[in-house]
Design goal:
The complex is a heterodimer.
Chain A (H helix, E strand, L loop, with lengths): L15 E10 L2 E11 L4 E5 L6 H8 L7 E6 L2 E2 L2 E4 L2 E4 L2 H8 L2 E4 L11 H12 L4 H14 L15 H13 L5 E5 L7 H16 L3 E5 L3 H4 L5 E6 L2 E7 H6 L4 H11 L1
Parallel strand pairs in A: 3-10, 3-11, 8-9, 9-10
Antiparallel strand pairs in A: 1-2, 1-4, 4-5, 6-7, 11-12
Helix pairs in contact in A: 3-4, 3-5, 4-5, 5-6
Chain B lengths: L19 H24 L4 H8 L2 H33 L3 H16 L2 H15 L2 E5 L6 E6 H4 L2 H27 L2 H9 L4 H31 L11 H12 L2 H29 L4
Antiparallel strand pairs in B: 1-2
Helix pairs in contact in B: 2-11, 3-4, 3-7, 3-9, 3-10, 3-11, 4-7, 5-7, 7-9, 8-9, 9-11, 10-11
Classes of the chains: A alpha/beta, B mainly alpha.
Membrane topology (chain B): Multi-pass membrane protein
GO molecular function (chain B): transmembrane transporter activity
Pfam family, one (chain B): BPD_transp_1
């Protein structure tokens, strides 16, 4: 699975590297020297009890949260900062925005632009940021809606869709930017089991295509079903970083065992 | 056993509870109101003929037109001032935020009438000459007495716009804060710059939220133009008082001006309703 999408000869750079990332909210340290690597084509489930810092870690990868220590890089490019001597200076708003286009993000609460139709939600960023022609953006949007199974919803407003449909549109919107890495922050937590199912199906399709994904979730169907690796976080630290199979069959940590026992209930 | 469940398959008619108390109160209200109207008609509180004669009087209509122009221009300018102040306030920069807060405190904290009098009477005393030139050259753009520049219209427009700008900034700030943070995060994550997020996501959504409150402010402004009568601007109230101080038909003329203010309010309300329908809450 890991090198499925990279058949070329050149050595592959990791898709995401988090190196000793730390982050404070006021005096509270929410991330403590978090380090991990995600290879291209890998699907990594970021698990842990709530408050462990999973979502914050995810938001640090595209600089929606500013880190206070360490580095994050995507395909070898330092995110949010550039090195000047022995210091990391925060980049301009414009440069950071450009970097974000390589990292797609899907949110727990969908966050579709509620004043726009489904189609406008998908085409706005490609047209504004990638300067794509309108006709081209529309054609791409229709193809993506087809892919997520909502070909007839282009002219609907988000409020007219079910939660599951909204989340699938949100996935299409993220894909429209053609990101190299997709971050999914609790993509099914706001949905009831039936609606979760359709969203999980969509995410699984993306996994099968070999997309690089980092997913925070409490959903076993994702974590156990098709993740390659599990990073288990507790109290802002990485407690375990192992292949998914190993995590579920022989968890090493006491907290992992407790967590799994609760998850399986 | 009248409360027992009907098990015999017969269909019983359902009668909802009637709210007799409210209807009785309504009837009493109607009696009071009609008694008052009847008393007013019997007492002949005004001469309808005089009322009709002045209703479409040229001067009166000119005054009403001036009020609408003044109120509408003031609304537009105050919306621009308000947007700038609101953006300063939420910018996160302590200097910009405090300047905005102090502005709002001053202009919201002093009576509008005092502000109008200030711009018309006090300002030209403080700065008797208006002299604007292009720096480092000899080109002079304006060199005039302040009293000729500050006409009653300019003073009224400045006074109303600057004061209303303070109120609008709070309304717009409320609208901006009401836009869900997730909307901003999503737009940022798609690679939009700060300004693009503001233009494409925050302002359109905040705009919809502030329509009802802005309609309210428009009505307030249209009526507040009557304050400009104090500095001699020929708006509706000034013309009305000028006429009745000559012919003493106080009741009729005040009724005429009230009619025109009501008409303006109806226009503003219709405008607000149209905008709300044009941009429905999603």
């Amino acid at each position: 699975m890991i090198f499925m999408t990279n058949t070329s000869e050149k050595p592959t750079l990791p898709a995401v590297i988090a190196n000793a990332v730390s982050k404070y909210f006021g005096s509270l340290q929410v991330l403590k020297n978090v380090s991990f690597t995600v290879q291209p084509g890998e699907v990594v489930a970021l698990l842990g009890p709530s408050g462990a810092g999973k979502s914050t870690m995810l938001r640090c990868i595209n600089h929606l949260e500013k880190i206070d220590g360490g580095q994050v890089s995507v395909h070898g490019e330092l995110i949010g900062y550039q090195r000047q001597g022995d210091r990391l200076m925060e980049m301009s708003d414009k440069r950071i925005s450009e970097q974000r286009t390589t990292v797609g993000m899907v949110f727990q609460s969908f966050n579709l632009f509620r004043h726009m139709t489904v189609l406008e939600n998908i085409i706005t960023a490609p047209m504004m940021v990638h300067k794509r022609e309108k006709a081209e953006a529309i054609a791409q949007a229709h193809a993506l809606l087809q892919k997520v199974g909502l070909p007839d919803k282009a002219s609907f407003y988000p409020s007219q869709l079910s939660g599951g449909q909204q989340q699938r549109v949100a996935i299409a919107r993220a894909l429209a930017m053609e990101p190299e890495v997709l971050l999914l922050d609790e993509p099914t937590s706001a949905l009831d089991p039936e609606l979760s199912h359709e969203v999980i199906g969509t995410i699984k399709t993306l996994a099968d295509e070999g997309r690089t994904m980092l997913i925070t979730t409490h959903e076993m169907a994702i974590a156990r079903g098709f993740s390659d690796r599990v990073i288990f976080m507790v109290d802002g630290e990485v407690a375990e970083d192992v292949p998914a199979k190993q995590f579920f069959e022989s968890p090493q940590h006491e907290r992992s065992r407790q967590f799994l026992a609760q998850m399986e209930n | 056993m009248t409360n027992a469940l009907n098990t015999e398959g017969m269909s019983l008619q359902i009668v909802h509870r009637r709210r007799w108390g409210a209807w009785l109160l309504g009837a009493a209200t109607l009696i009071v109101v009609s008694t008052m109207i009847l008393a007013a008609v019997r007492a002949q509180i005004m001469d309808l003929e005089v009322f009709y004669r002045y209703l479409f009087d040229g001067q009166i209509m000119r005054g009403a037109f001036n009020a609408v122009v003044l109120g509408t221009l003031a609304l537009i300018i105050s919306a621009i001032i308000g947007l700038m102040l609101a953006l300063m306030r939420v910018s996160g920069n302590p200097i910009l935020a405090s300047v905005s807060a102090v502005y709002v405190y001053f202009f919201r904290g002093t009576p509008m009438l005092i502000q109008l009098l200030f711009w018309f009477n006090a300002f030209p005393i403080m700065f008797p000459d208006l002299y604007i030139s292009i720096p480092f050259t000899d080109v002079v753009l304006i060199d005039q007495r302040m009293t000729t520049v500050i006409t009653p219209f300019i003073a009224a427009l400045a006074g109303l716009s600057l004061a209303e700008g303070a109120y609008m900034s709070e309304i717009i700030r409320g609208g901006i804060m009401a836009v869900d943070d997730g909307q901003r995060s999503a737009a940022r994550a798609l690679g939009m710059t700060h300004n693009q997020v503001l233009r494409k996501i925050v302002i359109p959504q905040a705009g919809r939220i502030i329509i009802p409150a802005s309609g309210n402010q428009y009505i307030m402004l249209l009526k507040s133009t009557s304050l400009a009568s104090a500095i001699g601007y020929l708006e509706l109230l000034r013309i009305t008082t000028d006429i009745y101080s000559a012919n003493f038909r106080v009741v009729e003329l005040l009724a005429v001006s009230a009619f025109w203010y009501l008409l303006m309010t109806a226009f503003a309300t219709a405008l607000q309703t149209t905008l709300e329908k044009l941009f429905p809450q999603r």
